């Protein structure tokens, strides 16, 4: 049961990444979305266009999702490599959220940090 819950968390959290970065840019009524996925404080300061920044964000978001799904599959398969995949996924998620930071992403940062802390602490122990 624990493996199923951990795998479900990893897969769902991973699939939220591209969902956030592909969300519509306008809400109903024409109001702008609270988060602009093409805007990166770091890339904008380097003179990178919004279109290139958005493409890079989408690429990293999909990469993060795929690695989280692989980590979840590894949990279900009782593979010894799943913690490494989870660390890679959480790290890429943190890079994504740092380079394209918006306060709206704070919960995602905490979830990625939680994955890193859980793997570092070998928690839950029944999966190791």
How does the overall form come out from the CA principal axes? Answer: elongated
Q: Which oligomeric state applies?
A: single chain
Terminal Cα span: 14 Å
The fraction of residues assigned to DSSP E strands is under 5%
Rg over CA atoms, rounded to whole Å, is: 16 Å
The overall average pLDDT, rounded, is: 92
- Which residues form runs of ≥5 with pLDDT under 50? none
Care to count the β-strands? 0
What is the N-to-C succession of helices and strands?
HHHHH
The largest sheet is: none
Helix and strand content put the structural class at mainly alpha
Please give a structural write-up:
The protein has 128 residues and is mainly alpha-helical. It has five helices and no strands. The longest helix is centred in the middle third of the chain and has 27 residues, at 50-76. The chain starts with a helix and ends in an 8-residue tail after the last helix.
Keyword list:
single chain; 128 residues; 5 helices
Topology:
Layout: H1 2-21, H2 41-45, H3 50-76, H4 82-99, H5 106-120
In brief:
The protein has 128 residues and is an all-alpha fold. The chain is 66% helix and 0% strand.
């Amino acid at each position: 049961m624990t493996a199923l819950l951990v795998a479900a968390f990893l897969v769902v959290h991973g699939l939220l990444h591209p969902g956030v970065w592909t969300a519509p840019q306008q809400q109903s009524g024409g109001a702008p979305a609270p988060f602009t996925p093409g805007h990166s404080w770091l890339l904008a300061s380097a003179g990178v266009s919004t279109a290139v920044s958005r493409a890079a964000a989408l690429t990293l978001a999909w990469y993060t999702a795929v690695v989280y799904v692989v980590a979840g599959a590894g949990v279900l398969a009782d593979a010894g490599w799943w913690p490494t995949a989870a660390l890679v996924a959480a790290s890429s998620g943190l890079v994504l959220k740092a380079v394209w930071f918006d306060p709206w992403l704070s919960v995602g940062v905490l979830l990625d940090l939680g994955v890193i802390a859980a793997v570092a602490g070998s928690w839950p122990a029944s999966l190791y």
